[in-house]
Fold this sequence. Notes:
Largest sheet: none
Number of strands: 0
Amino acid sequence: MLTRRQIRVKVMQCIYALTLSHDESLEKQKKFLRISIDNTYILYLLVLSLLMELHKMEENFIRLSFKKYLHENDEKYPNKEKFLNNAVLNQIVNNSLLQNELVKRKLNNWDLHQDYVKIVFNEIKKSELFEQYMLLGEQSYEDDKNLIANLFKEVIAPNERIYEYFEDDKLTWVDDIPLVNTFVLKQLKKVNEEYSQSFFLPKLLKDSDDMVFADQLLTKTLLNNKKFEEEIQIKTPNWDKDRIADIDAILLKMAICELTGFSSIPERVTINEYLEIAKEYSTPKSSIFINGILDKLVKEYRINGKLKKTGRGLL
């Protein structure tokens, strides 16, 4: 789920938090990094569990609708239980592995915040997507899948109240929300009738090497902070240290760390990754500034032998 670029962003956030708090405890920052990475998975689970809660709310609605005073609300739909019986929604609801994971992590957020579930539920009921689906005659698995994927894309993911809830719960989720929503949508589009229950419980990281990379990038950057700072100052003699944006300085130090301390990562990959992160998280001109500094440093490292890269696909 998490790519190397997103791991780099997590490391950047940890170093930035340390900069603001002036807490120099390396172990504390490493713990914060691991928690931040794990929280991305928690967010993913909460988004899936929201779909489960919407199904539960529909179940209650159907039960109440059979009482006379609510019966007229769904009279226009030939099959009032169509959404309730949606095949993809039921694959998620009846997934015992997913249920166990939610219980194990004690993720009962929506039980405590049913008002948010109701907001999304009402938006779904008012949507044209829901209307068209409920009026369909026969339904196929593809119809069911398309409905859930489209509802997620057009109604659930863009919902501002859900975004606000996640933002208030954990600040680091602000950057994780687009990532998680995109991944959930991909999963909803890829699921099929023969899916295994583990399909909705993917690995957070590709392999253990990714966590090692995250840990080492954070550790090496922090331990060499002063040395990297001096290298940046030498290459920016006309710039006062305080004039360089905090994020730019952090990204430069991380990039220098990768260039000199991670022999298997191609230099062009490192430079491109940090330029893209700068475009998203710093000032409009940051990527140009960072590119200029890194270009000078790479040329210098090649001359003095500090740029030692090994492996396939290296420039």
